[in-house]
Design brief:
GO cellular component, one term: U2AF complex
Largest sheet: 4 strands, antiparallel
Number of helices: 8
Radius of gyration: 37 Å
GO biological process, one term: mRNA splicing, via spliceosome
Distance between the termini: 111 Å
Order of helices and strands: HHEHEEHEEEHHHH
Protein name: Splicing factor U2AF 35 kDa subunit
CATH class of one domain: Alpha Beta
GO molecular function, one term: zinc ion binding
Strand content: 5-15%
Pfam families: RRM_1 (PF00076), zf-CCCH (PF00642)
Helix content: 40-55%
CATH architecture of one domain: 2-Layer Sandwich
Length: 280
Amino acid sequence: MAEYLASIFGTEKDKVNCSFYFKIGACRHGERCSRLHNKPTFSQTVVMINAYLNPQNAALTADGSHIVQDDVEAQQDFDNFFEEVFTELEDKIHQQFHMDEIEIQQHYDEFFEEIYVEMEKYGEIEEMNVCDNLGDHLVGNVYIKFRYEEDAEKAVNDLNNRWFNGRPIHAELSPVTDFREACCRQYEMGECTRGGFCNFMHLKPISRELRRELYGRSRRKRKSRSRSPPTRRSRSRSAGRENRGKRSRSRERRSSRSRSRERGGGGGGHRRDRDRHGRY
């Protein structure tokens, strides 16, 4: 029984623990969810809840009201006028919309870089993602995955005492460590029919230039640390090998000299015998 419960933990078959919170670190039901949200006591990932405010989502929508027209001809005249104006200004509207998209991307890149640089102060970052969803439980969530759990814990403790963009930061440890499981695959293929209210993550991408700059800098830091001078222990092993080599060479020289003395001593004794015989 215990093995079965362990095998279904965090899945849709689990009737006790919320599978959405386990995979995504957020649930649309919040505290009203009928299943448990097991908040981790240690994790590599920190989530800053609703931290990013997308200016595109602040656009006003129409109220849906309409005017009853008794005069059909007046409505037709208005429709013709509207179509003519719309056709004439369509290209200009498209150009203006394109410029707005560029400005929104720049705004997002600046936000992403500012948060990334601040989070680097707590430790090495493996991955950082921002949700582009519209649901209250996911909108603007920023997920930072550190290399070490200790750095994530340090970040959470400090961030909850800080403010950003005039608002207090609400940060907590997240169970999400594999974003491939948390992301909406249909959204990545451009086929998600749920739109911004999908319950899986719709991650907002940063520009290629910023990605190369931030993550390239992190790779260079890791390489510089890997090329650091060897530790004292490794140097002592090297010195030990050199000393052993010197001792071995000195022993060889001593044994060589002793062998030559032995040969020299035998020859000298034989000459002294001949000298004695010569005197007699």
